[in-house]
Amino acid sequence: MNALPNDPSLKLVRDMLRVRMIEEAIAREYPKGEMRCPVHLSIGQEAVAVGVGAALERTDPAVSTHRSHAHYLAKGGDLKRFYAELFGKEAGCAKGRGGSMHLIDLDVGFEGSTAIVGNTIPVGVGLALGTQVRGENAVTCIFVGDGALEEGVFFESANFAVVRKLPVLFICENNNYSVYSPIRVRQPTGRKIHEFASSIGLHSQSHDGNDVFSVAETVKAAVDDVRAGKGPAFLEFATYRWLEHCGPYYDDNLGYRPEKDVAEWKARDPIRVAEAKMQNHPGFSSDVMERWRGEIATEIDAALVFARDAAWPDTATGGDYVYA
Amino acid sequence: MLDAPTSPLAFVDAIRDGLDVAMQIDPHMICYGLGVDDPKRIFGTTTGLAEKYGNGRVFDVPTSEAAMTGIAVGAALRGVRSVTVHQRLDFFLLAMDQLINSAAKWHFMFGGQRSVPIVIRLILGRGWGQGPTHSQSLHSWFAHVPGLKVVMPTNAADAKGLLLSSIFDPNPVLFLEHRWLHQAVSEVPQGDYRLPIGQARVVAPGTDITITAMSYLVPEAIRAAEMLAKHGVSCEIIDLRTIRPLDLPAVSASVQKTGRLLALDSGLPICSVASEIVAFASERHFQSLRTAPRRLTMPDHPEATSFALTRDLHPSGESIASTVSDMLALPHRFARDPKAGPHDVPGAWFKGPF
């Protein structure tokens, strides 16, 4: 393992680069047909995950969605077991039972991601209720997308979190699309998600989701407030997914989103944004980026070998774990 | 615990007693649902708990069935057991994603790393105009889903014993209480009395036919057996007590002895628990069967509200006895005593409204 940077800003950039490269490797390897499960990549959205991961304690619980690779990795989830899960192997983080959409690493507080939109929202609120009942000092982080705000269970769960003043932090990545459906056909014109959340009683803000430094700072302040008992909070981050909703490819040939938008958001690549801001930062240079790329590529190669060589689950165990 | 002293309790008081015992044993256990600390206390099943354990552990909630179910799952992941309650099962249908995709799957889909010890109490309505959406007995739905356990106690002692076992079971348990059984009194062991989940009970041994029943159909089956006994017919009644896991060995033993099977179901006929039991007996004990097994269930339509439309809707002592007589090629048929009270209440104690 290479020494990771101590400087928080350097670490944020390296962590983003690492998440990006891990997902690019999935996109590269996916056509080989070894990862036989749906994958929802978050290339272009890394700043939110990495900023949140930096602001949470390892012991703070987090739950997430179908698009959770970056959240899992930024929380500190194990890379080898992540890839092994996508390969359907027994060594996977969910022993091959869950695949890409059901990630878990309890060693770092990543309590689980699930596949149904909005499904983990009340589970996260329940984790927070559990910490409150047990008198534990923890902030539960619930990752959602803009689509989850349209699920009734979001309102129900947020309402209860406010009623019981639970230590919950909602992180909303608003990437404007639910599969191919733009937000303008799903939510009324003029509505702002963070205002909607605020109307329920959550302490809400809206921010740029492609600037990792401001994300980290904003989330840290919110986490501190929630931990101090000020009640549940909601942070909306505007960001954009580059690839198709599900799968390893670009799909802008389908024409479902304006080319201009895609170009503008790609110009605001969170890694490039960070690089630009780091130009004069001590210890940062294009050489350092290159060194990191090399280190991360080595780590990825080893993890892919691990996943590829790992054993399949025994077919006869397909009915295991139904009951505890 | 067989030697534990007992006291006579109504079903509702046995539930309350079971909750109280569990909350003493587990200092983190919580109990919530719409009305748990309201003036009526869920038909008296939560009386005194809020005062004894405080609002942090016993509390009323928003009208949010889906979220409150998922919240129970999340709390369980953090080591906090819960008993939640819905005054009618029908409202709980709003929570199917959290039940089926979260509670039932969590242990499986994450490779056994976390279990979900939760209990969801669902009260079944019937009669007094409960109608299409306050009277559904959907235990067969839940029994279809691996990862869930489904319990349907018939009497006060079983209610307490199965409730305590459900609470301390590491899996999600649906606990279905029939509103018409709430005032049934029986001797209930005091203290931490637990009855294993998944064990049926032979209510009355018999030799001519096996009748499997659950919940409110157990007392109806007992009435039928009493009517038939006068004609020399001996019925073996099995109270299933648990719907998942089903105690199929108990069914096997009985069917092999009697050679006849009538499977009762308080729900609808298609894909019912009765269907499952008949299928099981036909596959496993075809050679033992002396006549075709039968089912007796609700008709294949919803329960209407009108007093007139609920007459003869549910299997009754009379319809069960008549069916058994038919299966035995006997001439006896049984009709409801016209002097009996109205058909849409369990007894004079039930004055509505729900």
- Name of the CATH first level of chain A: Alpha Beta
Mean pLDDT of chain B: 97
**Sheet bearing the most strands of chain B, described?**
7 strands, mixed
The CATH topology of chain A comes to Rossmann fold
Alpha-beta content class of chain B: alpha/beta
Classification by helices and strands of chain A? alpha/beta
> How would you write the strand order of the largest sheet of chain A?
2-1-3-4-8-7
Overall shape of chain A: it is globular
Biggest sheet architecture of chain A = 6 strands, parallel
Q: What is the H-and-E element order of chain A?
A: HHEHHEHEHEEEHEHEHHH
Radius of gyration of chain A from CA coordinates: 19 Å
Number of domains of chain B: 2
**Number of β-strand runs of chain B:** 14
Average pLDDT score of chain A: 97
List the uncertain runs of chain B: none
Strand proportion of chain A: 5-15%
What does the radius of gyration of chain B come to?
20 Å
Number of domains of chain A: 1
Walk me through what this model shows.
The complex is a heterodimer of chains A (324) and B (354). Chain A is 43% helix and 11% strand. Chain A is an alpha/beta fold. Chain A has a 6-stranded parallel sheet, sandwiched between helices. In chain A, helix 2 runs parallel beside helix 8 (212-227). The model of chain A has no long low-confidence stretch (mean pLDDT 97). Chain B folds into 2 domains: 7-189, 3-Layer(aba) Sandwich (Rossmann fold); 201-327, 3-Layer(aba) Sandwich (Rossmann fold), CATH 3.40.50.920. Chain B contains 13 helices and 14 strands. Chain B has helices at residues 11-25, 41-44, 49-53, 65-77, 89-92, 96-103, 106-109, 139-143, 156-167, 217-229, 248-258, 273-284, 317-327, and strands at residues 6-10, 30-33, 58-59, 82-86, 118-124, 149-151, 173-178, 185-189, 201-204, 209-213, 235-239, 242-244, 261-264, 294-296. In chain B, the strands form 3 sheets. In chain B, strands 3-2-4-5-7-6-12 form a 7-stranded mixed sheet. A 5-stranded mixed sheet of chain B has the order 9-11-10-13-14, sandwiched between helices. A two-stranded antiparallel ribbon of chain B has the order 1-8. In chain B, strand 13, helix 12 and strand 14 (294-296) form a beta-alpha-beta unit. Chain B is globular and about 60 Å long. The model of chain B has no long low-confidence stretch (mean pLDDT 97). The chains are: A alpha/beta (324), B alpha/beta (354). Chains A and B meet through helix 5 and helix 6 of A and helix 4, helix 6 and helix 7 of B.
